[in-house]
Every structure is written in structure tokens, then in C-alpha cells.
Design goal:
alpha+beta, eight-stranded mixed sheet, 17 helices, disordered N terminus
Length: about 450
């Protein structure tokens, strides 16, 4: 069986970035009812693929004998607790002996094919060969290849192999996962730009590349979904280690948590009620990473208080009122949303925030609507500025507080996920704000 081809460096580095940016957001779940561990486990990502826990490798795959003989000897020495070890500047475990380093030198001479390692990991029914492949991956020369191979760990069916590989993966990711394009020197940047397809070309479009990289672009993307899926399979040790792995990854790259963690929050709440102390401890640790800086210590002796603490932690990264760009605001079920609704209805009922407005414009047309004269503090998240003349809500004309109130009540009574588009004029310029009520 021939190994899968691996695309050029530039495409492998930047295609995941732009694909992630272009992908639709996963289903939002932070506001689902709190659950307890004895209930059916919440499944955040039910889809299965080649990386999903757990694969069932069934093929006979013959890796290079000489290379794997060397790698097995290296792996055996790494398992010997009496030998000195360290993590080198590239995040790799090194057995600090002349014999081990001599073996590594021979391995480098033969070369490690990342595509071949991936094929062994995914398809070989020989558990020892797979274990050797997971050990060997960290000694590939290309960082992007190693990070791609790390994504194969959750799908490995042998628990000991997973549990052996994950700590090594964290050591490696601590060095590399946070690197950005601007961290490279000019020569490295130019090498990537030379390999990158021209934005707008068919190859660029196929890989989701819409522009040249900028200094703030992350160099590498880790596929974290399989690690989240580990929270629903395996045993308590698997779940505790997966939570620990995710916690360490999100310390390095909070953007990965923002992008992928929210659908798994109900499961995280369930694991806070786990009978395993290790699982609870790691679930708390993950919540502390995504929580606000001033998050209090967790009340570990009171399950109900711990769930309330989790709500506060979750709001640090996933607030219930989310202003995406001053023109798109998401409102999730929460006390904060209820407070906004109550304050808004009260203000309109009393006509306390503005008055009817009608004025002839320079072009001869009349501007009619409801002018906002005052914005109560509780309504500032709605981003309607003082002086704005609200002209329509979901296409329905607004003339005064009563018409705005009637339209708003009709919208609120509809229930379910829905959108509210508010059009207004400010200083002669037309604007609109869309509210997504989740």
C-alpha cells in the first residue's frame, strides 16, 4: 500500500486556517439545561471519520523492517525509567544517552515518511506497529506533518497507546502550536509565499485560501474534534486525559476553544458530576482556562454550587450576549437576555427612551420613525446609539414607541431561534443591526 500524498508546505500550513474561517460555526450549546453524569451522555460531535474514536484497523501493512527495528529500540529505551530523559527545544522527548542518540542518527539517515506513519496508524492491525508509529511521529522533520499526525491519537483503539502518546503531544504542541507567520524570519516567510498558490486561482479556491498570509496568522491548525469525542468513549482515565489535553491546548490557543468547544459544554457539565475525582479535577481545570481572569475558586464540596460556578466560567469565553461586529448581536437564553427584554419593554411602555420623529430631508423625502433620546444602561448591549431614528423592524415601519412595542412583542411571542432586523438612520446615514435570538 502506498502512503497518502502530502500537499506542499504552504497549502498544509494555511489551508486549514482559511477553511476554518470559512466553515459554519458549530451548533451552539452553552445554554442547554445542566445535566448530571448518570444521565445519557451529551454528544457534541456525532459525526464519524477516519480520526474518530475508535478505529478498527484490519489491514496487513508491512512497514520498513530496518527503520521500525531502530524505532522499537528507541521506544524501549524511552520506556526505561532508569535512563535520563529531557524535552529538547523542538518539544521532543530525548533519551539522553549516546546509545539512544546513535539510534536517532540512523533513523534520520533512513528518513521517516509521515504519510507512511499515517497509513500504519489508520489501517494496520498490528498494534505494536501502530504504537511505534505514534512514537516515531515526533521525529518527523516537518512540524505541520507532526501536528497532523497528532490528530490521529484519539482514534487509536488501544488505550495504552493513546495514553502514552498524549503527554508527548502536549510537550510538542507547547513549542509549536502557538507560532504565527510573523514569528518566521524573512527567508522562511518568502519560502512559504513562494509555495502558496495565487489567491483567486483554482488551487487556492480549492484549499480555501483567499489572501496572502499576514503576521498574525497562526501557522498550524490542530483538529481538536476527535479529542472532544474522547469525552464520550473509553474509560475515566481516557476522559481525564482528554480533558487535560484540551485544557493544555486551549491554554496555547484559546481560539480553538472558541471555535470548537461550545457544543461540548453540556458534556463538560456532566463530567463535573463524574464519580471519578480525576475527571472532575480536569473538567474544573478546563473551565478555569476558558473562564474570566477573576474567576473564584471552584466550590468542590457542593454540586449545585459547582454548576453555578461553571456557568460563570463558561460566560468568560461564551457570554450570553455576543456583539460580533456592532451589526450582528447574538442573544442566548440567560438572565442577561431576560433583563434586556424586561428593560426594553418597560422603556417602550413608558415612552422613556425617545419620541416620534418626522423630518423632511434635503432630497424632499420625509424621515419618519422613533428617535432614541436615551439608552438605559441595561440596553447598551443592543448597540442602538442615542440620536438614531428607528425606521423599521423586520421590514415593518416604525412610527412611535407603541408601534415599536407592538412589533417587538409579536417577535418575542414567536419563540424559537429567530432574527430581528432593526433599521435606523443616524446623521443622515442608514444602518441596520441584526439580533439573533438563540
Amino acid at each position: 500500500m502506498s502512503p497518502a500524498p502530502i500537499p506542499s508546505r504552504a497549502i498544509r500550513w494555511f489551508a486549514p486556517l482559511f477553511a476554518a474561517l470559512a466553515a459554519p460555526a458549530p451548533a451552539l450549546a452553552s445554554a442547554l439545561p445542566q445535566a448530571q453524569e448518570p444521565e445519557a451522555p451529551h454528544v457534541a460531535y456525532p459525526e464519524r471519520d477516519a480520526l474518530t474514536p475508535f478505529r478498527e484497523p484490519t489491514e496487513i501493512y508491512a512497514p520498513p523492517d530496518q527503520l521500525y527495528s531502530l524505532l522499537r529500540r528507541m521506544r524501549g529505551m524511552a520506556a526505561d525509567r532508569s535512563l535520563p530523559k529531557k524535552i529538547d527545544e523542538r518539544g521532543r522527548e530525548i533519551v539522553d544517552t549516546p546509545a539512544w542518540n546513535a539510534l536517532l542518527g540512523k533513523v534520520r539517515e533512513l528518513g521517516i515518511d509521515a504519510g507512511q506513519l499515517a497509513s500504519v496508524m489508520r489501517t494496520s492491525k498490528n498494534a505494536d506497529d501502530r504504537r511505534t508509529a505514534f512514537y516515531a511521529m515526533f521525529y518527523c522533520d516537518r512540524v505541520d506533518y507532526v501536528i497532523n499526525l497528532i490528530g490521529h491519537i484519539p482514534g487509536e483503539p488501544i488505550a495504552e497507546t493513546r495514553q502514552e502518546a498524549l503527554p508527548r503531544a502536549v510537550d510538542y504542541l507547547r513549542v509549536h502550536l502557538g507560532q504565527r507567520f510573523g514569528d518566521l524570519d524573512d527567508e522562511q516567510q518568502q519560502a512559504i509565499l513562494a509555495e502558496l498558490p495565487e489567491p483567486g486561482s483554482p488551487v487556492a479556491k480549492a484549499n480555501g485560501i483567499k489572501r496572502a498570509p499576514v503576521a498574525s496568522d497562526q501557522l498550524y491548525q490542530l483538529h481538536v474534534v476527535p479529542f472532544i469525542q474522547l469525552l464520550n468513549v473509553g474509560n475515566d482515565l481516557d476522559r481525564a486525559q482528554a480533558l487535560w489535553f484540551l485544557k493544555e491546548v486551549f491554554k496555547i490557543r484559546p481560539d480553538l476553544a472558541t471555535m470548537w468547544l461550545e457544543p461540548a459544554l453540556p458534556r463538560l457539565r456532566q463530567l463535573l458530576a463524574s464519580e471519578s475525582g480525576d475527571v472532575r479535577e480536569q473538567a474544573i481545570g478546563l473551565l478555569q482556562v476558558i473562564g474570566p481572569k477573576d474567576l473564584a475558586a471552584p466550590p468542590t464540596d457542593d454540586p449545585a454550587a459547582l454548576q453555578a460556578w461553571a456557568t460563570t466560567a463558561i460566560k468568560g469565553m461564551f457570554p450570553p450576549i455576543r456583539n460580533l461586529n456592532d451589526a450582528l448581536i447574538q442573544l442566548f437564553p440567560s438572565e442577561e437576555r431576560q433583563a434586556i427584554v424586561a428593560a426594553g419593554l418597560a422603556a417602550l411602555e413608558n415612552s422613556a427612551v425617545g419620541d416620534p420623529f418626522a423630518e423632511r430631508q434635503d432630497d424632499g423625502r420625509y424621515l419618519r420613525g422613533f428617535r432614541v433620546a436615551h439608552v438605559p444602561e441595561k440596553l447598551t448591549p443592543l448597540c442602538i446609539p442615542v440620536g438614531a431614528v428607528i425606521t423599521a423592524v423586520n421590514g415593518i415601519a416604525v412610527r412611535d414607541a407603541q408601534s415599536l412595542l407592538a412589533t417587538t412583542r409579536t417577535f418575542l411571542e414567536a419563540g424559537g431561534t429567530r432574527k430581528l432586523l432593526v433599521e435606523y438612520v443616524l446623521d443622515g446615514q442608514s444602518h441596520a443591526v441584526e439580533y439573533q435570538v438563540m
